[in-house]
Fold:
Amino acid sequence: MLKNANKLLIIAFVLLTWCAALPAMAQETEKDPAENTGKSGGDDEVSTVLTINNKDGIFSSTASFSFEIKNTYDTNQEGSISYNITTENGQIVKTLSKPVNLGKKSTSKYDFEVPNLKTGFYKVNMMINVSDYDDTTRRAFGIRPEEIRSQYARPADFDQFWQTAKDELAKVKPNYKITEVPSMNTENRKVYEIEMKSLDNLTIRGYMTVPISKNKNKKFSVLLGLPGYQVKLYPIVGLDPDLVIITLNTRGQGTSRDVIHTERDAFISYRIEDKNKYVMRGVIMDCVRAVDFIYAQPNLRHDQILATGGSMGGYLSLALAGLDHRVTLCSAQNPIMSDIRNLVGTVEWPINDIKKYVLSKPGVTFNQVLNNLDYYDTKNFVTTIKCPTILGLGLLDPYVPPGNGYAVFNSMHGDKHLMVFKNLGHEVSQVYKDYEGRWMRDTFGLF
Amino acid sequence: MTLKNTLSKYLLAGIVIFALATGKSYAGGFPVRPGRISLSPSATYFFANKAWDADSHKGAFANNGKFSSWSYSLYSEVGLSRKFTLSVLAPYVINTFSTDLGTSKSSGFQDLEVGIRYYLANISYKYYFSLQGTAILPMYTNTALGYNQKGAELKLAFAGSGHLFGKNSFFILENGVREYFGYESVFQDRYNATYGLTLDKKFREQISLSVGGFYATSINKDFNVNPSASKNFAFNQVSLSYGHAFAKSLSLFLTGGTFITGRNTGAGSSFSASLNYRIDTK
Structure:
């Protein structure tokens, strides 16, 4: 009798705890409903939501999506809804149009399935044209993206090319300078401006913020933040007691524009006609130099270095992790320059800016530039990454189409994790940031 | 990048203590930072003047009997590496049993427990599984203080953190099986479930509710008023704990608990106060 009572109690306890735990365990989701609204002069409106019916927008063969329309008008809304599905470079794969008659103050939902699609990513343009409202909503989905591979080969001398660059960098004396900036100090952190010489003897600068600790012998894990395109990085402070945070302004950016100071649009093409002088060669070596800097600091843990960044910062994080195995974790969000040859005809930036530059340079051809860019393609760096890496992609990214992002991800051979945001463009959500923080802390043992 | 270390904040100083009459249980489902040393001295008062018999009928002790004990213990954890944590528990107890016929007392060290916890896996770096092996070494010969037998325990824990009602929360589920070796050997199943909430944004105040129990079997089915010496018994208890962090490295836990069901054991209540001090050596 008592045994049974005990068992019942135990079961009740476990259930109670689980019920209590469930909200804590609920997965955070991307809070970005694809909702469009069209309001009249009054409060009436037609609103639509286009939903790709998979959390990550990924299907094995048949794509599924739903279109929900809410009509709060006191009158029927008559017209049509239609969609077209295109490949990433705009080739139409399927179209459909159907008449609709939306009852007054009603909600209607239309489900669509598109079978037998080939491997790749597709864009959906969903149009509505009714009595008082017309609009287009865009979404994207993927079919078996794990099968995506770039059809363009890595140059045979890729590793040698970058070894030469690193050898050249090694010959440049770094002359590190660390200067405290008391005006930027916070209650729990000291802020330093850091300066060092990098490839071609250029001076690059950044910031280092160090937690104030009673333990004078404490060695800090390091977060190396790399910059987005033409973004000036400032010191990152905050309350974290465990991390030294270094933000680097690579050449031509932020506080490192002494020698290279192009117009914003021109930076991506700076000396692109010569693969040995292209600005990114120096930029990537600046990142390697930043790791040299970390290694020169006795208060920093040399075995706990996270390289992270978004957009160009994501590109640099992956390039750095591929070239310099002293990096122990890599986090890249929306990395540009991904599968570059496949960007042609798919994206406007950076291809149009590069083409514009080529046109201004007699004797330089776009093909020649593409050949040079093979040495700067994200997918070609990642094959040699050895550290755990996370990658964030937005399915609506206009600069990093998801097919290109997957070509990069599928080229990685090590411990890797991909986070896909089906309703986002050139960004990731807080979900990624939270995961990145937990992942880093766990890997570094900063429980 | 979210840089805050929420995990350790949820737990104030990282350890949740459940005062049980037959020894303390230290919930440790979460991994421990390498180089971190936690020290937890605690004092527990346990009192019982009623008991459940072998058929779970509750009644007063014969001859107006009252059992009470003061238990003092030192618990320590050391993060050896990202995966391994060393734990040590050293308890000292003073037992008093008085009836109309007289009073008997016993006091001394009890079982030293030395354990190694292994961080098995996680789910999205939010929910953690761990496995702990513990060696039990008696530091006494007086069987009023315990079984005076060596033992071993294997414990599986699942712990996680999240949000509920706008508050940061955590949970820990544990189950350990323990065997004492030798004459009239005892097998025990010790289980516990805890749910806790952090009450303020600065992570200084915390409450938690725990439900747990023991299930012990042995060929010796004799009743013993002293739960530490009883061999064949079962009970469930609920306990409520309040934690306050004076600083990042120093916390106080106050815990009250009472037995709610039982078999062949005293029906008691306990109150415990525990300090937790931690230092990071790396």
Summary: Residues 77 and 131 of chain A are 5 Å apart (CA to CA). The first helix of chain A runs from residue 2 to 25.
